[in-house]
Amino acid sequence: MEFKNDIPTEENTRRLDENGTFRFACHSGVACFTRCCHDADMYLYPYDIIRLKRRLGMTSAEFLAAHTLTAFRENPQFPSVMLQMSDRPGKPCSFLSEDGCAVYEDRPYSCRAYPLEPAICGSGDGRFAISARIVRHGHCLGHGEDREWSVRGWMEDQGMGGYNEINARWARVSSLFQRNPFGEKPLESPALKMVYMAGYNVDSFRRFVFESSFLSRFDVPEARLYEVRDGDTALLILGFDWILRFLGGEGPLRERRL
Ligand code: SF4
Ligand code: SF4
Questions:
Q1: Ligand closest in space to the Cα of 96
Q2: Residue 210, domain extent
Q3: Buried-most residue among 46, 90, 141, 254 (CB within 10 A)?
Q4: Using CA atoms, how far apart are residues 99 and 34, in angstroms rounded to an integer?
């Protein structure tokens, strides 16, 4: 999570491995409560979108249109999806209520991780190694609280386990974008539009799987098909496997033999 008017210096960031420790606590009694939910520059991961669109009873396309914007950030070949802050004074997050986060159980990965910025090194099958940077913004008073956490303990407490595994798969997928597979004008690339759909617009990807020639071209076992038909997470992982095959010629999804 980044804040335009509060950029931490090098001295205020520290790299930690999974067992590294830090002092921190966040609760409704801190004077800065919800300050970090204003004017934040926040990436959304594909699994964040599934959790939030289900929570809000929206399709993925409706969620993307209502609550996100895209920007070319660390990867110049592929747009990042960012949470759109509201245009109310102070630019609070649209999900911020008087009582705090109104989507707390389904809040995005970056909100869970904060003040950590995890770095996930993943393989396409969900295996991963994780480390994190702890970032100390001036506005965040949680660093003055007397509670010690390990990185692993914080992630468990914040319910990040399932997210880590899926985000690790996405880390492998997005590493393919570094090779410039979309050509000189990525925004005009039909391949980019397809990959963006498979990553972020799971309801459209479902139609692509079931209403195009997808299943005659790729060998998807019956049991997996059953999970994918109704399950967004299984479908998302199929989407990742399709991108790995489509862009990288790798991964578990096989083309059918003719
Ligand atoms: S302590 Fe930090 S994370 Fe918690 S509400 Fe305050 S600014 Fe946000
Ligand atoms: S989703 Fe919730 S925790 Fe995250 S910025 Fe919005 S209100 Fe804050």
A1: 2
A2: 174-255
A3: 46
A4: 10
Q: Judge if 9 and 124 occupy the same domain.
A: yes
Measured CA to CA, the distance from residue 147 to residue 191 in angstroms comes to: 48
**Whole-angstrom distance, CA of residue 120 vs CA of residue 161:** 12
Give the Cα-Cα-Cα angle 57, 60, 64 (nearest 5 degrees). Answer: 110
Domain count, the chain: 2
Q: Pull the structure tokens for residue 159.
A: 């319910």
Indicate if 152 and 185 belong to the same structural domain. Answer: no
**What is the tens place of the pLDDT at every residue in 130-166?**
889 999 999 999 999 999 999 999 999 999 989 999 9
Backbone Cα Rg of the chain = 19
Task: Return the half-sphere exposure (C-beta side, CA atoms, 13 A cut-off) of residue 243.
Answer: 28
Q: What is the DSSP string of 158-174?
A: TT-HHHHHHHHHHHHHH
Who wins on pLDDT, 128 or 112? 112
Q: Atom 1, ligand 1: which residue's CA is nearest?
A: 142
Place of tokens 């869970």: 112
- State if residue 143 touches ligand 1 by the CB under 6 angstroms criterion: no
Domain end call among 126, 147, 165: 165
46, 90, 163, 179, 184 from 171: Cα distances, Å:
11, 32, 12, 14, 23
Q: Which atom of ligand 1 is nearest to the CA of 34?
A: 5
| 154, 209: one domain | no
CB contact set of 105 (below 8 Å; sequence gap of 6+)? 55
